[in-house]
Amino acid sequence: MLDIPFYVWALTIGAFVLVLGLDVAIAARKGPHVIGVGEATRWVIFYVALAIAFGIGLTVVAGGQSGGEFFAGYLTEYSLSVDNLFVFVIIMASFAVPQEHQHKVLLFGIVLALVLRGAFIAIGAAAISAFIEVFFLFGIFLIYTAIQLARHRNEEPEVGKNPLLRLMERVLPTTREYDGAKVVTRIDGKRVATPLLLVMIAIGSTDILFALDSIPAIFGLTKEPYIVFTANAFALLGLRQLYFLLDGLLDRLVYLSIGLAVILGFIGVKLILEAAHETISPSFPHISIPISLGFIVTVLVLTTIASLAKTRRDPSAIRHVVPEVGEDRAEIPVDVPGAPDGR
Known about the structure:
It is built from eleven helices and two strands. It has helices spanning about 5-30, 35-60, 65-95, 100-130, 135-150, 165-170, 195-220, 225-235, 240-245, 255-280, 290-315; strands at about 185, 190-195.
């Protein structure tokens, strides 16, 4: 375990807040606009370069083991984030969010995700330090998640089944019409929530489910909370721009869910072997970080190549992630208390 002083934690979190604040300030100065491929590419390169620079710096300061753990964790979290983008696309399309306001919704989701994952990381680290046997539970959960991900790889999530979203729809006076970038507006003198607030709730609450598999997965690669947090933070920071960069490519990654299922299953087995090695017998094999990193990179590369080759040979295999406007739209119940007529 690394001995990370408090001031290093404070400087790291402050640096993330500063970078995110810079991103927000630039977006605010430009105002609501559609993020093009060029702008998205520059930001993605910037965030990936930051992550690589941090990993190299960590390797120099703390050694190759820590650097390898960071890069393995970062790649795992980033690849899981790409799969999460499918859900974001469906949520955006279901609520027919105007393109110029989508970056605001994603920004809210990323900030909320950083806070929630910070809490989950603290809980996970405390559980692991208390009893290593929790790795058995993490491993079984990841293997189960991998099986479910592979089984339901062709099924689209149903936005309307989000319990928090349905609760908010029923208790909040809501309008179906957008009012620019406002999350709350006035109709006939009454304050009502716009669909922008609901889609923010949908994005933010959905990330809670994402964290349930991503946090145990990275703890399977490193037990160091500092590495877990920084790998998650770097993966999330560039997620908003990655959404716009991959907008036309997501539906071609037809085998991504299978690749991620393989990775999650591999980490699940690694966790169980690690727990058995520590608690039962040292004779149980230990999967090293170089092997884990090599396996993750290989699976991601093969998955991407196979997906693009498949869709090139068979265009009908392309996943149509984005429904037509008005199709499969998340309906706001007509019995919303206090909602104005014509909602």
